[in-house]
Backbone:
């Protein structure tokens, strides 16, 4: 079972990098093989929504980290084996050498597959791997593939320099008779590469392994959550439960609202992958989907304004909620694309309606602090803000959540501090001299 999400959410959370900017995927990608990279990418695109699967994967990675298991295979072996196996399709019944491969490529490919099979056999027999009970299912599956009698000669092969006849026999075995078995084995090793890679990330960054809970009163508990891509980040605590599952978040510009929303939703996304997260503690009830709206673009192709794009986004999520799905829904500056009066009324109406969806979680940020007063009549709503402290005329930001609704209004102070009005009146040079 997969967690429902969409391209907007993946873009908002910056799951995959762009140009010179790293994404969350890049942070977790310490894989040694191209196959491991591909599987890791699949995992990021298809988070889980099954509690047992999530906890099992999380346990495997956590125990690999705890046992300090390292990836024991040379990546160059995989390069040779992959090139070799990729050229199996053009073989004919009477030919064991593919025209696309040179004799050297075949020799290298056969040698690489033999070495990999022997190394995997040793690896799954190691005591520290056998102790990882959550990995038993996959370890036994690997063992079953390896211990088939067809591979007996491979496991027992001692010669480093194979004869032409031996290479020919192994070539027929690997690329024709047992090709499917070899490919399944390779995929298991790629999966292993991912587990060890992510375990190393958890150790290096001191990330915590979330626990997926049975459905109950607490829906989400986060202690010290921060964005994994930030250095020296400040963590925050968040608890959402059946009595408070809608958060109305306020704060001045630059106070850290968008970063907090990304921190929270990224942690929930990664937790549904069974991955470690940037926090001190995390427990959560498994959801059906995550939908964020942090950087919603205008839809110029259909001539839609930003406001209409927001309306369509809300409509899509409303349909998912009506279908009974439990979701995490994030809106950063809901209805910013319209005038203040309409935005106020729409924010109260939509956020108030969200409070009726008890099995879902909502965090709505807004500059319209007056809407918070109207929302106090809706049971299930909590109020958090990110404060600004004034040091003389300079705003300073704590980035720490506090209870309540902010009354910070420092926009004009920032505009004056930047000398914009003076520049408009006197020109840049004279403004700088003052």
Residues:
């Amino acid at each position: 079972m997969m967690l429902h999400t969409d391209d907007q959410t993946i873009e908002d959370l910056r799951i995959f990098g762009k140009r010179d900017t790293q994404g969350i995927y890049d942070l977790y990608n310490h894989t040694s093989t191209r196959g491991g990279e591909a599987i890791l990418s699949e995992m990021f695109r298809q988070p889980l929504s099954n509690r047992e699967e999530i906890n099992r994967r999380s346990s495997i990675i956590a125990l690999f980290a705890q046992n300090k298991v390292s990836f024991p295979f040379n990546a160059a072996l995989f390069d040779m084996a992959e090139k070799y196996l990729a050229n199996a399709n053009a073989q004919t019944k009477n030919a064991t050498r593919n025209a696309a491969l040179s004799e050297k490529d075949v020799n290298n490919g056969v040698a690489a597959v033999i070495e990999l099979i022997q190394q995997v056999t040793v690896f799954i027999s190691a005591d520290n791997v056998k102790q990882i009970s959550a990995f038993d299912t996959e370890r036994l599956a690997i063992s079953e593939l390896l211990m088939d009698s067809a591979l007996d000669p491979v496991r027992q092969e001692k010669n480093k320099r194979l004869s032409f006849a031996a290479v020919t026999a192994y070539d027929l075995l690997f690329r024709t008779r047992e090709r499917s078995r070899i490919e399944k084995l390779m995929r298991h090793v790629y999966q292993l590469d991912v587990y060890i890679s992510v375990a190393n990330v958890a150790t290096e960054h001191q990330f915590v392994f979330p626990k997926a809970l049975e459905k109950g009163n607490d829906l989400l508990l986060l202690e010290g959550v921060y964005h994994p891509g930030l250095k020296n980040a400040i963590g925050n605590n968040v608890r959402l439960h059946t009595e408070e599952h809608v958060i109305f978040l306020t704060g001045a510009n630059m106070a850290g609202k968008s970063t907090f929303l990304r921190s929270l939703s990224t942690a929930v996304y990664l937790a549904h992958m069974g991955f470690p997260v940037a926090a001190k503690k995390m427990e959560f009830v498994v959801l059906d989907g995550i939908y964020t709206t942090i950087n919603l673009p205008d839809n110029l192709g259909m001539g839609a304004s930003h406001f209409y794009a927001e309306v369509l986004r809300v409509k899509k999520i409303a349909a998912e909620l009506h279908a009974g799905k439990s979701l995490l829904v994030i809106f950063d500056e809901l209805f910013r694309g319209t005038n203040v009066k309409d935005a106020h009324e729409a924010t109260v109406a939509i956020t108030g309606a969200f409070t009726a969806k008890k099995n879902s979680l909502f965090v709505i940020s807004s500059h319209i602090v007056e809407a918070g007063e109207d929302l106090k009549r809706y049971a299930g709503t909590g109020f958090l803000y990110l404060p600004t402290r004034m040091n003389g005329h300079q705003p300073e930001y704590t980035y720490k959540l506090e209870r309540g609704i902010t009354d910070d209004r420092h926009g004009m102070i920032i505009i004056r501090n930047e000398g914009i009005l003076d520049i408009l009146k006197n020109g840049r040079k004279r403004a700088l001299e003052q």
